[in-house]
Amino acid sequence: MVSQYGNDKGASSRASSAPPLPGGALAPDGSLPGQIAKIGMLGLAAAVGLWAVFPLYAEGRWIGVATVVAVTALIFHVYLSKRTVPAKYLLPGTLLLVAFQVIPVLYTVGTSVTNYGDGHRGTKEQAIAGIEATSVSRTADSADYTLTVAARGDADTGDLVFLLTGPDGSAYAGTDEGLAPLRNATVEDSGKITEAGGYTILAPGEVNRRSGEVEEFAVPTGPGSGIRSSGLSTAYEGEAGRVYDAGCDCVTDTDSGQVFTADNERGGFYAEDGQRVSQGWKVGVGLDNFVRFLTDPTLGSSFLSILTWNLGFAAGTTALVFALGLAVALTLHTRHRLRGRTTYRLLVVLPYAMPSFAMFLLWRDMFNADYGLLNRLLGWDLDWFGDPWTARAAVLLVNLWLGFPYMFLVATGALQAIPRELVQAARIDGAGAWQAFRTVTFPLLMVAMLPILVATFAFNFNNFNAVWLTTEGGPFPTDNPMAGATDLLITYTYRLAFGEAGAQYGYAAAVSVFIFMIVTLISVVALRRSKSLEEVHN
Amino acid sequence: MVRPLLNRRTLLWARRDGWRHLVMWAVLAFALFPILFVVSAALNPLGTLNSSQLVPAGAGLGNFADLLTETRYPRWYLNSVVIAVTNAAATVLLSALAAYVFSRFRFAGRRFGLHGLLVIQMFPQFLAIVAIYLMFAAVTDYWPKIGFNTHWGLMLVYLGGALSINTWLMKGFFDTVPKELDESARVDGATHAQVFFRIMLPLVTPVLAIVGLLVFIATINEFLMASVFLRDPGSQTVALGLYGMVAENRNANFGLFSAGTLLLAVPVLAVFWGLQRFIVEGLTSGAVKG
Predict the structure, then answer these.
(1) At what angle do helices B254-281 and B73-104 cross, to 10 degrees?
(2) B23 touches chain A (CB under 8 A)
(3) Residue B235 and residue B113 share a domain
(4) pLDDT value of residue B93
(5) Which of A110, A347, A469, B113 has its CA 20 to 30 Å from the CA of residue A82?
(6) Mind telling me how many Å the CA of A494 is from chain B's nearest CA?
(7) Residue A293 three-state SS
(8) Is there a domain that residue A7 lies in?
(9) CB-closest option in B101, B124, B261 to A512
(10) Which residues of A touch B199 (CB under 8 A)?
(11) Pick from A100, A465, A515: which is nearest to B124 by CB?
């Protein structure tokens, strides 16, 4: 894309003494190297498009194919047209932004109005298949399989897969969606499978660690039947004890005779006494998740205090790092030669160069009441994380330490961008150093730094690591183990939504949308008042 | 430090510079003592947390040797540096392209675009991680080359954030370059691309350096997204590897952890110190003044 400046076109237009067009800028084409680069980039875009379209085409995913074709066509249109100059510059970043930020956010908003989570994962059909498969028990003519426990991806966290060898020696892969023949598997004489493409075979120790899951795992094999494990190395196909009947849209337990009727609004099967079958399906629940967040008694009582601290934490961090960062920048910002300035600059940014996640953990250990470095150095016996206010002060101190070098960098850059003549003019007009700073330097500085300050605020509003890796939200009042003194909304939510109760993605998404709205509101108000937006308006 | 000598020069120095040095010494004490602790823990031959002091009792490079020979640290390190350098370079380019049009062109959707950039990144990405995970589960099925356990997939997600507050930062600096410069070039027949690459970019090198540095550091430190994408030990970054190390045994591995932390800080410092010249001098030079 780098092209020769002062190209033939400019030269020839001058040679023919044609008056230069106003904004001869719109002069098209560009130089030869520029053209070649452009053709190369478009060729690359076409190649990537082709590569992306093949698997989609093979699987018959027509919407996907259409999307890839549309995006590729858009790229060609933007770069071949002469009227879309701003788009030429914005397109690459915007495409990535849409794909990996906007769509996940929209997806999250979509999830927030569902009950998606453990027990409500798939469709109703999958839930029924799961219920039937989990309830199977051995019958007289049950087929037995040799079981090899495997996983998709990581041995400890990947989805479980049962690799099964039937009596006739044929191999299958059983997932929670059903049974499929297994090709490219190495089967031993005993029936154990030692290698299977695409699956990670679990070592005995790893199987033991996940034995609870293996016990619960079931492979649906058809209406009213499924495969379950019997021990960790054999499995059987049996008949379901709980059978779904489409006529009454209900599940009947053949042993107890209990009937669970489908509730399509809540996404589960419920008995008359309110008992629920653990497998349900994903349904839309409207704004229930939001209502729950605002009206739940446990949440409601702690909500205000957490929001207050959350705002205090974000505003406090922003103010502290700005104050210290600017102070250091001003200290080093002089016209005359300051001995050691370069060394100071190099050393001051050291905290920023340290890996932040590691430093959070390190600070946590320094604040430790028993063997912490701070207590040992100061000769104190202070339980920093035991008292709400010392814990809060500690978290702010850690965040200040990590954050001020960044502000120092930005402030230094902004200070150097302010034309020296302006300050000099103010001084000549009789302003003192402080007055010149207050009336000239500082306002100009704020114009450049306000977006950074807003972003710092927004970042710290959700600074999960700063709290989770140090205090984990504690200390907790004795009467409420869910809401700690240093909890941010996001750590609080994390504990509630991903804690012992299991994954509740729908609920978690609702709270994150809620947090999003609060931060947006605050930021928009802050930006409305700022001068930097005026530049955007003109 | 400032001794009250009855020497006029010393007095002048104290008034003009002395306070600066005092302030800087105080700030440096605050900034450096945790780092001193890491250094002494890394050199501590016992390598445990509860034996670590601010000034080490003994010193040895045993922790470093163990880290480099008995763990996968070298591999993690390479992964981290490759990912961070690529991401920083791509982000700087994408962001500069956008900042240029936001600064120099007036077009429909400009205001929306600038405000949208600020708003979209206020969404806690942490919770969108579920959505990203589900998206990439599908991507892994169709295009395993950019799916989980690949650096490509992770970098694509990082680049989703290329247009961000950094674009604002850059736009602010682009605005300080006088319009007359590029206007005169365009009257002379330069295309918009030539103005961008030949005139604007050289003038805004300092901000490019700052943004590149910030992105590099953020990528080196990034933990959450990497932990979702990189499960295979061979593909992991230093942040993941070190975290796993102390999660297993915090006390006993503290020396290794500290040594790893220090080594991870080295490339960041190298980049910063390498770019120092741009950051410090850049914006004060000639044509940038408004």
Answers:
(1) 30
(2) yes
(3) yes
(4) 94
(5) B113
(6) 9
(7) helix
(8) no
(9) B124
(10) 5
(11) A515
* Same-domain check for residues B119 and B259: yes
Q: CB–CB of B130 and A406 under 8 A? A: no
Contacts of B176 in chain A (CB under 8 A): 417
Residue of A nearest to B149 (CA): A153
Chain A CB contacts of B32 under 8 Å are 347, 350
Q: Report the domain count for chain B.
A: 2
The answer on pLDDT for B239 being more than 90 is no
Any A CB within 8 A of B55 CB: no
Spans of chain A, pLDDT less than 50: 1-28, 531-538
Range of the domain at B18: 8-60
Task: Note whether B273 contacts A: Cβ–Cβ < 8 A.
Answer: yes
**B36, B86: one domain:** no
Q: Which tokens in the block code for residue A59?
A: 């699987």
Q: Do B212 and B54 contact (CB within 8 A), yes or no?
A: no
Is the pLDDT reported for residue B221 higher than 90?
no
**CATH (domain of B145):** 1.10.3720.10
Those of residues 100-119 in A touching chain B at CB distance below 8 A are: 100-105, 107-108, 111
Instruction: Print the domain residue range for A195.
Output: 136-240
Query: B122, A523: Cβ pair inside 8 Å?
Result: yes
- What CATH number does the domain containing A272 carry? 3.10.650.10
> How many structural domains does chain A have?
4
